Amino acid sequence: MASHVSNPYLALVLFLGLLFSSKSFASVAKMGQFIKAKNYNAVVREFRNDPRKKLLLNDSRAVMYVAIASENLGAYKQAYYFYLRLLFLKYGNYYRMIQKKLDAGDFIESEKLPNALKVQYWKIYTSIGKHILTLEKLNANAQKDVEILKKFSVILTEFAFREDLIEKLDSSVDKHITELKLKKNEFVWRLYADIISWQREVTISSSLSSAELVLTNQGICAGGSFSFENHYRSYFLDACFAYGTGSISSVSGINYEQGGVPVMGLKFAPGMSFFVSEDKAEIGFKVPFFYNIQELENPDTSVYIIDNGSDLSYLLSLYSRWPVKNFFFHTEFSKFLDQDTIMWSFGVGMKL
Amino acid sequence: MKKLLLLILLTLSFKVFSYPHYIGHGYPSCFNCHFNPFGGGTLNDYGRAVGATAMAADHLYPSSWDNEKVAYHSGFLFRPPKQKYLRNQINYRGFTLIRNPGSSETEKTQWITMQLDGRAVLKFGDRDQYIMSGSISYTPRPSSPTPGVKDESDIRSREYYLGYRPTPSFGIYAGLMDKVFGIRVVEHIAYSRMLPQVTQNDQTHGVAFHYLNHGWEGGLHLFLGNLNQEEDLQMKGASLLLEKTIGEIHRVGASVMRSENEYLTLTAVSGQARVSLKDGSSVQAELGQVMKQSTNGLVDTTSRYALIQTYLKPVRGLYLLTNIEYLKNDTQSDEYTMRWGPALQYLPIQRTEFRVDLYNTRNFNPKTSVKDTWLLMFQTHIWL
């Protein structure tokens, strides 16, 4: 001892060591009291505010307290890191030995391992599992977490430790990951060609009388849609170009009849839909804007006026789609908002 | 008394329609749920249980009821059968029909009872290979009487037959039955049922052969016409239906039929497909052509029809469907008709069905245009 003290440098190191350790012990003791009082926020605060965090990270009690506090606060990823740190601190040799055996594919004699070690692995496994269950999005970090979980699940299964509970947590995580995958949004393009038909009420009038005409159009509407969708619902924009012919006749009064009148139009529709089956059969609504040009023959412009309303009309549609692999059949049944007339369409298409 | 009751039940019968769209629930064959392998008629025990546990909604049951308990109460009069020989059913179907709804000038509303009937099936053998099925119903006479039937009564039977299945895959049925042709959809006003004359009053006496294995299902029907009609009107002939199972859950098939009486020869062909989208959603389609030749040459026409029927099941017990129908009465003509019908079918609890159908009918003529016509139907269907 005398020789130690005689070395001034060593004496300084010993002094500083004693100083720091005594401070650390004070901090750790406080953490212990906070844990007993279930004041978990205070544990984490104490750890964060301690200027010698690096030293505390080598104190297994401090690490354990922060891990427990983090777990109870629901900060499972943080708890995972601290439990993992605790494993290295307390069971570093075991960890390396187990890792070697796993890498070599050797059998692990789990009955020879201390139960506390298995509990330590269990804590790590459940922390990362619980963390995954709190995730709301699936990203690259989440994928890494799932890999970590699987790794510890394998180790604990090798230990034959709490296998029923492992199966339960694994299954919950798998279910949650599947759910996140299903909720994942993607952009989807589709192309389609429809048979389309619509009817409009037209008025013909003269200075003496007026009469109602009915105009029935039919044709093809070819276009596409762009949607932002996940497994459950879709928001989309849809547009198609319509080309066809129509015939028009008077319902009563003035006798008027014309057939084969060409018509062109553009239908643009925002909408939303829900997927209702495993194969993504879909039902939803659209609010189409329909712009069409159709020149109706006026028998005598000096006497008659034909009023076929605005070229732009608005509709409300009930929409449904049945996919078979990348192809689909879809239908749309729409009511014009300015008249009691109907537009319908059905057709086939493909997902790009 | 029991014998009398049995006798009454044996003479009782009803006509219930089949739901071929249940292919979306994984049932490509009608034989899974019906005693009649071609669909319609009495449900078997399995069909009753499936109807209660998979088709109808479950939100009206006490929370303690699981599907097993629901199925337990799916038997006749809510009890499981105590013997294996007799199965009964009582059925009511009626609807409010509104023509041109919303039109102050032409709107017309009427209530129509389609059927109120009872039926019984007697079955014997270790595989129930021997069956006797019959139904009798109170059915108001149609507005246009059935041709050749004198003193048509409100009480009549649309189905009675004997059946024998020597093997599970092969059966013979003899009696009064629906003709074996096309997709037997519930909508009896469908062009696909009216044109080939296979709709609600077109049953015929005859013998039907049924074959079913994992890949194929088929039927051959040899018929003598409805023997209740005058002899010169009885349509005698034969029909053949073949369906192949694709990918275990879908069906494609074809039908052909030829029948004739002293005035008319009718030949019909059709192709059909039923696609399952799982979870109760499906699409079914039929495309057919009917040739009618009269002995006097006055009504010789070739007609064409198509049907696309789509089903979506947003939640258990609720189906949203669309009927898209095409009719060309004369293939030589430029005129044709399209009928578009969105509909909602709701089965709130087992044995109860409500349905709303809206039909928009549009005629296409290259030279003229007429206003669409509309039908709105509120249908109630209850069975015990």
Provide the fold topology.
The complex is a heterodimer of chains A (352) and B (384).
Chain A (H helix, E strand, L loop, with lengths): L1 H5 L1 H29 L3 H10 L3 H4 L3 H13 L3 H29 L10 H20 L5 H19 L4 H21 L2 E20 L4 E20 L3 E18 L6 E19 L6 E5 L2 E5 L11 E3 L4 E13 L2 E10 L5 E10 L1
Antiparallel strand pairs in A: 1-2, 1-7, 1-10, 2-3, 3-4, 4-5, 4-6, 5-8, 6-8, 8-9, 9-10
Chain B lengths: L1 H10 L33 H11 L11 H6 L13 E14 L8 E17 L5 E9 L16 E2 L3 E8 L2 E8 L13 H4 L9 E9 L3 E10 L10 E11 L3 E11 L3 E13 L5 E13 L6 E15 L2 E11 L7 E11 L5 E13 L8 E11 L1
Antiparallel strand pairs in B: 1-2, 1-17, 2-3, 3-4, 3-5, 5-6, 6-7, 7-8, 8-9, 9-10, 10-11, 11-12, 12-13, 13-14, 14-15, 15-16, 16-17
Describe this structure in words.
The complex is a heterodimer of chains A (352) and B (384). By secondary structure, chain A is an alpha+beta fold. Helix content of chain A is 43%, strand content 35%. In chain A, strands 1, 2, 3, 4, 5, 6, 7, 8, 9 and 10 form a 10-stranded antiparallel sheet that branches. The longest helix of chain A is centred in the first third of the chain and has 29 residues, at 8-36. Chain B has 384 residues and is mainly beta. The longest helix of chain B is centred in the first third of the chain and has 11 residues, at 45-55. At the A-B interface, strand 2, strand 3, strand 4, strand 8 and strand 9 of A face strand 13, strand 14, strand 15 and strand 16 of B.
Largest sheet of chain B, in brief, is: 16 strands, antiparallel, barrel
Helices and strands of chain A, in N-to-C order?
HHHHHHHHHEEEEEEEEEE
- Report strand % of chain B: over 45%
> Radius of gyration of chain A in whole Å, from Cα?
37 Å
- Sheet with most strands of chain A: 10 strands, antiparallel
Overall 3D shape of chain A: elongated
- The Rg value of chain B, from CA coordinates, equals 21 Å
Strand content of chain A: 25-35%
Which residues of chain A form runs of ≥5 with pLDDT under 50?
A: 1-5
Instruction: State the secondary-structure class of chain A.
Output: alpha+beta
Strand order in the sheet with the most strands of chain B? 1-2-3-5-6-7-8-9-10-11-12-13-14-15-16-17
Number of strands of chain B: 17
Q: What is the CA-CA span between the terminal residues of chain A? A: 82 Å
H/E order of the elements of chain B?
HHHEEEEEEHEEEEEEEEEEE
Helicity range of chain B: under 10%
- Biggest interface: A-B, 38 and 33 residues
